[in-house]
Design a protein that fits this description.
- There is one protein chain.
- By secondary structure, this protein is an alpha+beta fold.
- It folds into two domains: 4-144, Jelly Rolls; 149-221, Orthogonal Bundle (Arc Repressor Mutant, subunit A).
- It has eight helices and eleven strands.
- A four-stranded antiparallel β-sheet has the order 1-8-3-6. Strands 2-7-4-5 form a four-stranded antiparallel β-sheet. It has a three-stranded antiparallel β-sheet with strand order 9-11-10.
- Helix 6 (175-181) crosses helix 7 (186-198).
- The longest helix is centred in the middle third of the chain and has 27 residues, at 122-148.
- The chain is elongated and about 60 Å long.
């Protein structure tokens, strides 16, 4: 059983709230669980509110006119997101989707509560705009990589980031999921990984990739 009160106290701005505001947030917060692949937020759904990932991993992306998914950034345990509260941020003009990459548990601060807090509490308002700026910076970094970086370099960078994040040489991801996270096609991922394998950089396994030459991958990135 998840203790929602303990989860709420993990909010970055919790210690900046008054006793009245804390009670208000408690009354309008909820724990939600999503299955892998389940949509959490899109332009067609109701405004979710601010979320804080408690367990699992989520991915924010946009859709091209052709239906191609372009990943903006990922969310891991302990990371908040305000793009799911687009109804609160009036200047947020692009449509985003958030999907559960794994089984995901999140704390949701309802849009009415989050909107009220941003109006009444300068610390919460600053938090919202600072986090929105961080999200935008992540979006710009993703766009720069897609537009100006060779795919082999992008893929090597992604594998190294996963290695550092998980502290493991084995990257447990399918080609399809890597393609989604690197905004490419599964065929391109498979072709590039096969080349990495021929070069002795990785070993391809069923449902995972073993990194054999970290230094070699770093040379591709540099």
């Amino acid at each position: 059983m998840i203790d929602i009160n303990a989860c709420i106290e993990k909010l970055p701005y919790w210690d900046k709230l008054t006793a009245e505001e804390r009670d208000f947030v408690r009354s309008r917060s909820a724990i939600r669980q999503y299955k892998r692949g389940q949509n959490m937020h899109s332009q067609d759904s109701a405004c979710l509110g601010m979320i804080l990932v408690l367990e699992g991993e989520a991915r924010a992306y946009i859709l091209s006119e052709e239906g191609r998914e372009i990943t903006l950034f990922r969310l891991h345990a302990g990371e908040p997101c305000v793009l799911s509260a687009s109804c609160v941020i009036s200047r947020l003009t692009f449509d985003t989707h958030i999907v559960a990459e794994t089984g995901c548990t999140v704390l949701v601060i309802g849009p009415d509560a989050f909107s009220s807090l941003t109006d009444r509490n300068i610390y919460v308002r600053c938090f919202m705009y600072e986090l929105a700026t961080e999200h935008f910076s992540a979006v710009m970094a993703s766009m720069q990589q897609i537009l100006f970086m060779r795919y082999d370099r992008r893929l090597a960078m992604f594998l190294l980031e996963e290695h550092e994040r998980t502290n493991s040489r084995e990257i447990r991801m399918t080609h399809e999921r890597i393609a989604q996270n690197t905004s490419s096609a599964r065929e391109v991922v498979a072709r590039t990984l096969k080349r990495f394998s021929t070069q002795g950089l990785v070993e391809l396994r069923r449902g995972s990739i073993m990194l054999k030459d970290i230094g070699g991958l770093k040379k591709i990135v540099s």
